[in-house]
Amino acid sequence: MKAKVLINGYGSIGKRVADAVSAQKDMEVIGVTKTKPDFDAKLATELGYKLYCAIPDKERVKAFEEAGIPIEGTILDVIEEADIVVDGAPKKVGKENLEKIYKPNKVKAILQGGEKAKDVEDNFNALWSYERCYGKSYVRVVSCNTTGLCRILYALKDFGIKKARVVLVRRGADPNDDKTGPINAIKPNPVTVPSHHGPDVVSVVPELKDKIITSAVIVPTTLMHQHTLMVEVESEVKREDILEKINETPRIILVREKEGFSSTAKIIEFARDLGRKRYDLPELCVWEESVNTLGNEIFLMQAVHQESIVVPENIDCIRAMLEMEDDKFKSIEKTNKALNLIK
Ligand code: NAD
C-alpha cells in the first residue's frame, strides 16, 4: 500500500513536494491545502489534487465556493487519513501547525527550514541523518542553504574536517516573490558573524559544532544562492581526491565554466533546456574550476537552487519517518530515479 501524504501549504515548496510525491511508486498525495482561492489553488485542482482549505474557518471555505474553486473540505476533514503531513506553510506558521494541528491529531509531520531546530525531534538531510530520523514523528528538513552545505560537507567528511569557513551569497527573492529584496544593494544578512547557517548545519551534523563558521549577504538575484567554502582537513589533500569524492556523492554535480556554466544564470538556463518543470535543479552544483587545495586546505564554490534542493530530501524524509526503506542510499536512488535527477 502506498504511503498517504498530505501537503499543508501548496506554495513554492509545497507544490514541488506534491509533484515529487506523485512521481514515486510507494507514496501518494491524498490532498493539498490552500488558505485562499488563488491561481495556485485552481491549478492544483486542474492537476488532479484534492484541495482542502488549510484553515478550518467558515469564511475561508465560503471564499473558495464564491471563487468557484471546488474544495473537499478543510484540513480537519482529511488529516485522519494521512500517514504523514508535509508542511509547506510560511516560516513560523509550520510550528503553529505542529502544535495546533499535527500533535493533537497524532499525525507525523515534516516541517521546513523556516522553522527552528529546537521545535522538532530531529533535523533531516538524507546523507547525514536518515538513520537518526528513522521512525521519528516530527522532523524538520533543513533549509536550502543548509542542505547545500550538508551535501558538500558529506563529500568532504572522509578527509576529517577540522574547520569549515563559508561565505554565503543569498538570493534576494524567489521568482514569484513581489515583496522582498533588496533590489539595489548588497545586504549583510544577518549582519552578525557567525550567521545562523553554521548552527543549522550542526543541527544535522553535531560533530561539526565549533568547527563551522558562516557569514552571509543577500544580493539582488532570484535564481540561486552561491557559497564559497574554505575547509581545513586533517592532512594534506589533492584536488583530484576532492573531485572524486564529489563525483561519488549523490545529488552533487560538477559544472564547468569552460562549458559555459559561467554564472547562476547559465546554470538555470541548463535546467530550462533539460525541460525541468519550473526549471528546477535539485542537484547541488559545484564549479569544477573552483575546486583547489593548498596543503590541508580545500577551496570551492557552489550554487544552490533554493526552491528545489530540499524537494528530494522531503521524499527521503517521508521514507525514513514512515520506516519504508531502511537503507538511505536505496531511498536516495529511488527518489532520484523517479525525479530523473542527473545523479
Ligand atoms: P510560500 O510563501 O511560497 O508558500 C507558503 C504556502 O503556505 C502558501 O501557499 C500559503 O498560502 C500557505 N499558507 C499560509 N498560511 C498557512 C497555514 N496556516 N497553513 C497552511 N498553509 C498556509 O513559502 P515557501 O517558500 O514554499 O516556504 C515554505 C517553507 O519552506 C518555509 O519554512 C521556508 O523557509 C522553507 N523553504 C523555502 C525555500 C524557498 O526557497 N522558497 C527553500 C527551502 C525551504
From TrEMBL:
Reactions performed catalytically: D-glyceraldehyde 3-phosphate + phosphate + NADP(+) = (2R)-3-phospho-glyceroyl phosphate + NADPH + H(+); D-glyceraldehyde 3-phosphate + phosphate + NAD(+) = (2R)-3-phospho-glyceroyl phosphate + NADH + H(+)
| Class in the EC hierarchy, top level | oxidoreductase
Q: Which SUPFAM superfamilies does UniProt cross-reference here? A: Glyceraldehyde-3-phosphate dehydrogenase-like, C-terminal domain, NAD(P)-binding Rossmann-fold domains
User: What Gene3D superfamilies does the annotation carry?
Assistant: Dihydrodipicolinate Reductase, domain 2, NAD(P)-binding Rossmann-like Domain
**What's the main place this protein lives?**
cytoplasm
Q: Which GO MF terms does the UniProt record name?
A: 4-hydroxy-tetrahydrodipicolinate reductase; glyceraldehyde-3-phosphate dehydrogenase (NAD+) (phosphorylating) activity; glyceraldehyde-3-phosphate dehydrogenase (NADP+) (phosphorylating) activity; NAD binding; NADP binding
In which residues is NAD(+) bound? Answer: S12, I13, G114, R171, Q306
Where does the Glyceraldehyde 3-phosphate dehydrogenase NAD(P) binding domain lie? 3-144
Binding-site list for D-glyceraldehyde 3-phosphate: S143, C144, N145, H197, G198
E.C. code: 1.2.1.59
Where is it localised? Cytoplasm
Q: Which residues form the active site?
A: C144 (nucleophile)
UniProt cross-references to InterPro entries, sorted A to Z? DapB_N (IPR000846), GlycerAld/Erythrose_P_DH (IPR020831), GlycerAld_3-P_DH_AS (IPR020830), GlycerAld_3-P_DH_cat (IPR020829), GlycerAld_3-P_DH_NAD(P)-bd (IPR020828), Glyceraldehyde-3-P_DH_2_arc (IPR006436), NAD(P)-bd_dom_sf (IPR036291)
Q: Which UniProt keywords apply?
A: Cytoplasm, Glycolysis, NAD, NADP, Oxidoreductase
GO process annotations (BP)? glycolytic process; lysine biosynthetic process via diaminopimelate
Q: Tell me, what's a Pfam family for it?
A: DapB_N
Pathway membership, UniProt: Carbohydrate degradation; glycolysis; pyruvate from D-glyceraldehyde 3-phosphate: step 1/5
List GO terms (cellular component aspect).
cytoplasm
Origin superkingdom: Archaea
Q: Which family does it belong to?
A: Belongs to the glyceraldehyde-3-phosphate dehydrogenase family.
Question: Subunit comment for this entry?
Answer: Homotetramer.
Official protein name in the record? Glyceraldehyde-3-phosphate dehydrogenase
Q: Which gene encodes it?
A: gap
